[in-house]
Description:
Mean pLDDT: 87
Order of helices and strands: HHHEHEHEHEHEHHEHEHEH
Radius of gyration: 19 Å
Shape: globular
Largest sheet: 8 strands, parallel
Structural class: alpha/beta
Distance between the termini: 38 Å
Number of helices: 12
Number of strands: 8
Amino acid sequence: xxxxxxxxxxxxxxxxxxxxxxxxxxxxxxxxxxxxxxxxxxxxxxxxxxxxxxxxxxxxxxxxxxxxxxxxxxxxxxxxxxxxxxxxxxxxxxxxxxxxxxxxxxxxxxxxxxxxxxxxxxxxxxxxxxxxxxxxxxxxxxxxxxxxxxxxxxxxxxxxxxxxxxxxxxxxxxxxxxxxxxxxxxxxxxxxxxxxxxxxxxxxxxxxxxxxxxxxxxxxxxxxxxxxxxxxxxxxxxxxxxxxxxxxxxxxxxxxxxxxxxxxxxxxxxxxxxxxxxxxxxxxxxxxxxxxxxxxxxxxxxxxxxxxxxxxxxxxxxxxxxxxxxxx
Length: 328
């Protein structure tokens, strides 16, 4: 199972446990409990909700939704036996985002739109759906694996990563997408591989600037004790030195900082903030409060997107409500 799939599924349980009880800011509003606009009651309960929340458009414009949030509802070309719920295609998601959430920002996994690499007509069709729904593709998340990675000790593998990311920057440009995010394969990112990783990411960042596409990577967990001892600091601290020296950008994933309390989370958000791509991934945790994290990030002057990374409508609606409740 891929890391993102695991985290997205795990976040459902976490969000349902702490979202409505441990974090007061995530509880349904009175209107939602009574079945008002955007209410949970209109969708049969369970936190799912239906329709945009009754808030200012400026607040909704700060939210992005990752396509992996809805894997349970999207036909997977690798799955010969889709579930009865899997009735959507990637082309259907822009319309669903607008109708269900009033959100016009969509973040795709590259695998979801992999046909973009081989079929120019697919790009035209998806771009038409985006335009029809006044949708912005805000980021493409590139998951190429351990070989095509900036942290690969082998120079050939790093060059493959650079070349492949450049191809996706070209694709992103055709979609009007301003960001791509790579998987740096954190476990391979060591003192020994750091120099090569910086050079590879710099090549990506330099090329991206010619296409008006930013490249970033995200926080990737707490790391094993052995790994932390080897690098001499927290993984997010070590990662910062890479994208900073590469002239690239950051994408904080607050659920994957490895923070055990609110202050640790805020320390990472503040340190990565000067390099932000303008995108953050948002999920819940039993160790800290999403609402406080949003308010702290806003206090730094952040004007970018909060991109929700949980699974299924029920969990998405809870985090969606939390973000909106804590935006000024």
